[in-house]
Amino acid sequence: MTKAREPGTARPADRPATAARLRNLRTRLLSLAAIQSDRLVNQKLVQVDARKRHYAIIATLYEFGPESQEELVSRTGIHRSEMVTVIDELADRGMVERSPNPANRRQNVITLTQQGRRQLLKLDKLLAQAEDEVLAPLTPSEREQLARLLAVLVHHHG
Questions:
Q1: Burial of 137 from C-beta contacts in 10 A (0-12 / 13-18 / 19+)
Q2: 2 forms bridges with which residues in the sheet?
Q3: How is 114-140 classified by DSSP, letter by letter?
Q4: Lowest mean pLDDT segment, chosen from 37-41, 59-63, 64-68, 106-110
Q5: Thinking of the domain 48-131, which architecture would CATH place it in?
Q6: Model confidence, pTM
Q7: Domain limits, the chain
Q8: Lesser CB count within 10 Å: N end or C end of the chain?
């Protein structure tokens, strides 16, 4: 066992700053990587006054077409109580339009606008930059392997 040092004394320069059991704990490494990735993604999005939830909604609408708010909750994982606020933000910016569902007047249908499509392309570029920065130390094949492994974890716990 390593001898504990006195509080307030300097750590020898040749000793790591983190305990080995912390350095090698995979769940901790995964959490730290996620925190760093999240911070970088948020920094990129704030450059264009956007948030991850904005991207999730406009990407979903682009891929699946007009959706009810309930479907967007299901497809994006954004909590029902937050969905209205995020849609309001996007509607105020002209990126989505909200209209009554002709089949169920109690529901709204959310549709992506041309401005929303342009924003999606801009956000795609920013997020690709963020991903390149986060994954810079990895080769293309390591990036693919990481994506496959993360997908397995997300699907398993999902």
A1: exposed
A2: none
A3: HHHHHHHHHHHHHHHHHHHHHTTTS-H
A4: 106-110
A5: Orthogonal Bundle (1.10)
A6: 0.82
A7: 48-131
A8: N
